[in-house]
Amino acid sequence: MTRLGFLIARTLRQEGPLARLSVPQQSLMDELEGRAVALVGNARSLAAREEGAMIDAADIVIRINRAPMPSARSHGTRTDWLALATSIRPAELDRIAPRRILWMSHKRKRLSWRVAHTPGFYLHPLVDWTTLRDRLGAPPTTGAMMIDLLMRSRLRMLSLHGFDFFASKSLSGSRDAHQVPHDFAAERRMVEDLIARDGRVRLVGA
C-alpha cells in the first residue's frame, strides 16, 4: 500500500485495506502457545516494587502504550510486543524497541504509517473491541483488551504487573479515574473472575 492509499483508507475508515497490513490473529495465538507472558501495565505503584527480574524472565514481555520504564529494578528492560492505543513519537518507539506492535484502538485515524508498516504488525479487529466494550459497559483500556486477547490463547502463564486499576493513577499521565472513559471496577472484576476460574493468571503485587 502506498502512503497516500494508507492515508485515504485511514481517513475514510476503510477497514479492509488496513486489515490487510496486519498479520492474522492466529499468528499471535501460535506465538503465545505454551509461553509464559508478562503483561506490564503503567500503574505508578509498580515503580515502588522490585518486579523487573520477574518481568524479564518471561518468554514474552508485553508493554502498553508509551511504556514508561523508570527503572530496570521495577519494570525490567525487555519489550517483545507493544500494545498501542495512542499516538507515539518515533523517539519513544526507538526507546522501547518492540519486536512487534499491536494496534488495539478502534480509532484508526490515530494509526501512523510507521506503526502500520512495522514487521509483524497486528491490527485488533473492531468486533473484538466492541464485544469487550459491551461486556464491561465502557470502553476497555488497552490492558483489558490485551488480557482478553491473551486469555483466548493457549499460553502457559500470564503474569500481570503494574495493574492496580487506576488506584495509583498512571505513570504516563496525571488524570484521575473520573477523567478517563473506562470502568476500572468492571475491569477489576473481569480480572478477579479470570483468576478465580483460570489458574494460568497471576496478578503480581496485589
Automatic annotation (TrEMBL):
Chief localisation class: membrane
Signal peptide start-end: none
Protein location: Endomembrane system; Membrane
Taxonomic superkingdom: Bacteria
Topology relative to the membrane: Single-pass membrane protein
Gene Ontology CC: endomembrane system; membrane
Molecular function via GO: sialyltransferase activity
Record keywords: Glycoprotein, Glycosyltransferase, Membrane, Transferase, Transmembrane, Transmembrane helix
Name of the featured protein: Glycosyl transferase family 29 (Putative sialyltransferase)
Species annotation: Albidovulum inexpectatum
